[in-house]
Structures are given as structure tokens and as C-alpha cells.
């Protein structure tokens, strides 16, 4: 069991770092600020959840996971003032229904 736990831990670290690099590249272009970063289940698999905001008052939420050699990223972006909170539940429902094969 130790070997499997170590592999899962390595994979979670890789997912977080790879996802963070993607967001960091966007951050340089858009002035993104990461407001949350935590482990999450994505399609029933270990993954990462990020929340960001930018200087244009757009909030974003990302989920990412790696399945085999593929990276899956689910993202939601909306103006922070009204639409983000209004439509977040729909994004969360869609994210919960995601399954990678």
C-alpha cells in the first residue's frame, strides 16, 4: 500500500504543478491572482481546484486531473460583479457529471 500511496501523492503534486504552470502562463498575460488552490476530486479522480481573479474583474474556477497521459481541465469564467456567483452552481453541476475514460 505504501508504494501506491507514494505514487498517488507524486501524481497529485505533478497535477498541481502542471495546472499551476498553465495558470501561471495565463497570469502573465491577464494579471491573474490565484485566490484558492486545493486538492479536489475531478471525475472521481484526484485532481486540483483553483480559483482566480484578474484585473478586469473576471473570476475563474478551474478543476484539473490527469488520466493516463491526458490532462483534463474544466474551467468557468464570468464577470465577478454579478454573473460568476449567479451561474457557479451550473458549472459545479457540470463538473460533478464529468467522467474521463
Descriptive keywords:
101 residues, four-stranded antiparallel β-sheet, 4 strands
C-alpha termini separation: 25 Å
Total number of helices: 2
Largest sheet: 4 strands, antiparallel
* Radius of gyration, CA atoms, in whole angstroms: 14 Å
Count of DSSP strands: 4
Number of domains: 1
Order of helices and strands: HEEEEH
Average pLDDT value? 79
Relative helix content: 40-55%
Strand order of the largest sheet: 1-2-3-4
Residues in β-strands, percent = 35-45%
Structural class: alpha+beta
Spans of at least 5 consecutive residues with low confidence: none
Give your account of this protein's structure:
The protein is of the alpha+beta class. The chain has one domain. 44% of the residues lie in helices and 39% in strands. It has a four-stranded antiparallel beta sheet, sandwiched between helices. Strand 2 (45-53) and strand 3 (58-67) form a beta hairpin.
SSE map:
Blueprint: H1 2-30, E1 33-42, E2 45-53, E3 58-67, E4 70-79, H2 83-97
Antiparallel strand pairs: 1-2, 2-3, 3-4
Short description:
This protein has 101 residues and is of the alpha+beta class. Helices cover 44% and strands 39% of the residues.
